[in-house]
Every structure is written in C-alpha cells, then in structure tokens.
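Every protein is a chain of amino acids, and every chain bends into a shape of its own. Below is the pair of lines this work produces for a single protein:
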Amino acid sequence: MNKVFFSLIMSVLFCSCSYGQRNSNDQNMRKLQMTLYAIQNLYVDTVNESKLVEDAVIGLLEKLDPHSVYLNPEEVKEMNEPLQGNFDGIGIQFNMLTDTLYVIQVISGGPSEKVGIYPGDRIMMVNDTLIAGVKMKTNDVMRRLKGPKGTTVGVKVLRQGVSGLIEFKIIRDKIPVYSLDAHYMINKKTGYICLNRFAATSHDEFMKAFKSLRSQGMENLIFDLQGNGGGYLVSAIDIADEFLKQGETIVYTEGEHQRREDARATAKGDFEKGNLVILVDEYSASASEIVSGAIQDWDRGVIVGRRSFGKGLVQRPIPLSDGSMIRLTTARYYTPTGRSIQKPYENGNLESYNKDLIDRYNHGEMLSADSIHFPDSLKYSTLINKRTVYGGGGIMPDYFVPLDTTIYATKVWREINGKGLTYRYAISLIDKNRDTYKKEYKNFNDFKSKFTITESMLQDVFKMMVDDRKNVEPDAKDTEATDKDREEFQIAKSLIALQIKGLIARDLWDMNEFRQIINDRNETLKKALEIIENQEEYDKLISGK
C-alpha cells in the first residue's frame, strides 16, 4: 500500500471518528455567528458590536471556573507590570488620601530622586492637569505619570514648609518593581525573608537576600509567604528548588487536554539542609501553595500559620488580536503526593467562591484548628516521614496559629484603618520632624530601640477620627466619641502606635525597616521563631510523632 493511499485512509478514518464532535462544534459556532449576524442586521437599535462580543466572551468564561477571565488591553498591561519586574515611569510609590497624591517613597536612583522629589511631597498637578481635590481615580493618576522611557512629564508639588508649588520636569525611565519586601537577621542564627508575590525577578531577589543572610551567619530560615497571592509558576519552582534535593518533584500539572507535566528539583539547591519554616495564611495562594506544599510533602520544613487560600488552577494566557487576553484554565496543580491545591467551586459561581473566606471565619476556622474537618478520602501521606496531610483546598499548616481578633474586630480599629488615619498622622509627623528624626537617629537600630509613640500622639489620632466623622456627616447626632469608642481605642492603641512607627521608619529608610517594626506584632512569626530554634519541637513536627 503506497504512503499516499495509506494517509488518505487514515484521514478518512480520523474524520469519521471525530465527525460527531466536529459537527457539534460547527453547529455551536454557527449558532454564535447567526446570533451576532441577526443582531448586526436586524436589531431595532444601534449596538456597540465590540462591546457585545466582549460581553459574550466574559459570559462564556464566567460559566467555567472562578479563574478563567477576560482582560481588556489596559487590564493586560496592569496585570503584567508587577510581575515583569519593571515598567516605565517616574519612580515613586504613592497613596491617594483625601483626594491628594502623597509620595510615600522615592525609588533610589530613579527619575524623581534625580530631580529632587522627596517622600511626603504632594503632587498637585501633572502636565498642567489638576489631580488633587478632584476625586480622580488612582488608575487615571497612574496613567498620567507613566509613559515611555525618555519622555518628559511635568509635575507641580506642594511641600511642607515651602510656599507655593514647586515645578519639576521628570524624564521617565525603566523603574524596577521588587517582589521581596524584607530580609534581615532576627538573631545570630535565624534569617527572615518576606516575598509579596512571585514575579519574573523573584528568584534573583531571593538569592541575593539569601546570600546576604548567609554571609551574616544564617543557619535557619523563616520564609514569609503570608498574603502572597502567587504569580509566575517558574519563579515558584526556582525558589522551591533551592530547598529540595535533585530529582524530587516540586509540582505537577494535568488537565483534560494537557498531559501530566512534572517539575523536578535540580542539583543547584543552596539550602537543602538547615531548619526551614514557611509562614502562610488564608491569603497565601497559587505559587505560594506550590512552594509550601512541596516543602510539606517532602518533610523538608515546617508550615506555620492558617490554611492557605486554595487556588490550584493553571491559567494559560491566550492573546487576542486587539491586545486583550483570555486567561483560560487548562490544568490543575498537584503537590508531589498528588494533592489538589484547588478548593471546591461550583462552575463559575464567583459569589459563593469569594465568600469562602468569610464562611471560614464564621465557622471558626480562623480561630481554632479543631473547626477544620477533612474527609478521609482527602488524606495523603508525606513522602519521607509518612505524616498525614490533606488535599481538597489549600495547604493546612503543620502548626496552626489563630487569627488575633482582639484588635481587628473592634469597630474603632476598622474605622481608623479604613480611613487611613494612621497613615495621615504619620505623614504629618514626618512633615514636621523629618530633619530632626534624621539627625537624632543615625541608624535604624537606634530608631527602633529609642523612638516611641507617645500617649499625646495617640490622642491626636483619636481626635482625627472624631473630627473626620463630623466632616463626613456634620449634621449627624452620633459623631461624638462614646465610652465604647474610648474603650475600643484603648484596645487598639498598641497596634496603632506600631503602625505609625513603622510608617515613619519606611519614610526614613525603606520597606525592609517597616517590616521589622510591624513584625513585632506578628504572632505567626513569633511562633515560627520558637519552633525553628527548639530542635526537639521542630523535629517532632517534621516527624509527625
């Protein structure tokens, strides 16, 4: 039988086998095309066809799962920037408070620092457009400040102690976006690294921090992934590789139309020995769960905190011709033992899916590990010590740390935090005292040990809260402070003071110093430090005995 004839027969057979499926697909496509054709040519009113198609795509994806989504061109750009490691802009971090842009930090060596922008400056105008006091959206402000490298943007700045507006011409440049918040030695043997997302540069940032800590004598590592919502899979694999031995599975993915693909550790691991604790909470998701799941399955370290989010669906970006994108779920993540990370969901029902964390809180899961129940069908054994672990949604820590609700549940704390009053007060202190603070505290350790937030300062914050109520609702009868307000403020004072001190440290130094201040109240970190330095307790958790 010649090759041409054989190929022809195989083609006929293939077409016959798949005809039913293809015929069904063709009918579905014709149905969509006929609907759009009818609307275009017969509908009573003029319609925006592009918007109609976009809404149809969004509707289709909403029926699949909570993570299959459509992104318009602007959303694609906004999604990619934090993960790519840089963008074109002027090099500041800012907050919008009371309709005013406050410069929080000026990136070292960036365009704004070069022309003399300072932390605490208020940018009032961009290219002669007023942005202060006009209720402009943060995205609209960012759009005016960002732009191609080499282009110029004009800003007018209000600075404490200077009359009138100061004008600057800033030449935009590439601005690095860092995913590592902090790294420092907690004590002589234990280092701390905090990663806020898994970006393209995360592994390089992690290794730079790791080597710095190693040079300072680090033997044990606490790796903080609390609140880390994930990011690039390859970055998670590269970082997990530093902890695991060559050949050990880190994660595998599999789907209806995707064969199983395994990612395995290489020989490059720089921290395959030494005590390791990873911190997670209910906001640790995706890539964070891949790293913590692999460490747990191989009995390489101890997971401390609360059950992670449970996001184990793999999205494949599918670019569309107009610059928009579909992020379509194509597979699931599985830990080395075969556990699915993904929590249950009902089709694309976002309402019940997003309500999951509230349900966990209401069921007591945030306060007690005894409130968390897993069926025996989700039981797995770790690969070395055969400890029992569970699948079915998120990573359950080896040591549970309850959420501290004593402060966070108070109405006064939620009001002060929600209105950004601690930040506004910290800005006012820095504006008045920046030069004094810099002269008085020669280094961060000096500041950390000696600077205190006084009772008078805290009462100023309380007064700001009361005054803010009157400004929002001047005719309301319940704007005055009540005994309950004062009682709750007494409970929240210590955290408010810590936040103000941390914000001042961030202004004078950087995020690394802010984190060192704030971590004084991090109960999960405190427990992790106890475990990592108590070899008997560490070994007991690793062995499961």
